[in-house]
Known about the structure:
By secondary structure, the chain is α+β, with helices and mostly antiparallel strands. It is about 50% helix and about 20% strand. The protein has helices spanning about 1-20, 45-90, 95-100, 105-120, 150-155, 200-235, 245-260, 280-285, 295, 300-305, 340-380, 385-405, 410-430, 450-465, 520-530; strands at about 20-25, 30, 125-130, 135, 160-165, 170-180, 190-195, 265, 270-275, 290, 310-320, 320-330, 335-340, 430-435, 470-480, 485-490, 530-540, 540-550. The two termini are about 80 Å apart.
Amino acid sequence: MLAAQSVYAMHGRERNARNPWVRGAGGSYNRERTPMTRRRPNLQGRLVRLHLFVLCGMTALLVVVQTAQLYGEARERLGERALTASRIVAKLPLVVQGTERGTQNAALNAQVNVLREEADADFIVVGNARGIRLAHPVPERLGKPMEGGDNAQPLAGQEVVSVARGSLGLSVRGKVPVWAGGVPGSRVVGVVSTGYLMPQVWHLVGSALISLLPWFVLALALGTVGAVWAARRLRAEILNLEPEQIAALARQQRAVLAALREGVLAVDAGGLVTLSSDRAVTLLGGQSAPAPLATLWPELALLTAGGAARTQNLELALRGEPVLVNLEPLEGGGFVAGFRDRAEALALAEELTHARGFVDVLRAQTHEYQNRLHVLSGLLQLGRGEEALRVLNAEIHADAQFRQLLRDVQVPRLVALLVGKRERAQELGIDFQITEGSHLGPHWERHADTLVSAVGNLTENAFEALAGQPGLVTVTLGEDPDGMQVEVEDSGPGVPAALHDTLFNRGASSKGEGRGYGLHGVYSRVQGLGGSLRHTRRGPLTVFQLSLPQPLPHRPPEPAEVTA
Length: 564
């Protein structure tokens, strides 16, 4: 037992080495991995990673946008505060007087620094009309020119908020002019600049971002949970298959559809054809999916309007040609239809009938020759050689007579069939005869398949009509300028009255289910050649009469035109 399992496992590994897709438990497909193959994340892992990557990217983008927005708001708010502080300082009498004189004043510097601390500003600088510092947080820098290059507008009588780099660093500044006598619109005698250094701006931005951090983390967590849930749902919807497995199955499906000789249509619950094989496209006249079934095949659409049931060998018309249809309903609505040309199916059935007929003939010949050999052997063992010789001569004479009747039938396959049917009749105890004078010319070899099928079916039906009872079956072959005629007579009870009008219809038979296809096939082929097949009653005999018109003369292909 263990040895068998080991051998099975070894063969399984060899098979899996050739086929990278193996089917696992529960009908799912798993990719066979070797130690040298790097494991690839499954669909769920890839979806979660992709979702997290997109979510993190969006979060980073939102952080950048939010930072830029907060930075602008902080600059604007600090600029307004700086401008307000500068306006207050510019109206102080001590500042107005100091800037009018334009000289250093310790009291002015002290009062301005007190106001700076109250305004929580990083600096308040007062300069005279030439931009020389009169007040500054750093005493060593008093008397030096103001830096930043943004004094032109305040000295021109305009208030301004700017971002510039001064002696203390990059800062947001609010600058206003100092008017002579404190009267706006008079002469500008100085400038007041209140500023907040940029680290204070970024401190405000950081505080705002920190307050938003919990929301970013919550969004990331919810997104992760949602990604895992969506990945699991998606994987369940696609039958736990990986994308590579789905692609492989799709390629296999296309190959299978291309290899089928039948047409295949897949139709959804709404009547839309979602899939069609190459053979189906050919039978539909070049029309392919997606398209409404009512447009491609109105008869099938009408038949399946209320839902399709499992059906086998349903005969319908497609573009005026008969086809055989198999229907298989799908879960959730819709169905798959497989169909093939009825003529092809009948041709296959006829080939099978011929094969079975030849098998029966060979079996009958074997049995008959065995019986004859047994008779001859017994006579010889009993010392009755003369009687054995008479039996042998009688058989030879009977065979010679039968072949003499067929000497003018110049269709070899038909002659072979009739010889075999004679052996079959002898096995069944039936008197099988060929009418003297039967003849067919060699030009009927062109329709040998039809003749073999027709005569084979008619004689076999005649044998079955006798139902194992002794009787007579006679075959007559002849031709005239209008065509050829075949008659098969039997002494059976005849065709039941209920089948007189439907005998040549498909499936019509008095012998039970699964019968009634042979005569229908013969009738179709004979009609296709412009002939006729009918039956009648002639006294105690049942007669089937087959007629075919003269075959058209064979025209050799015209030689191709040669151009110089």
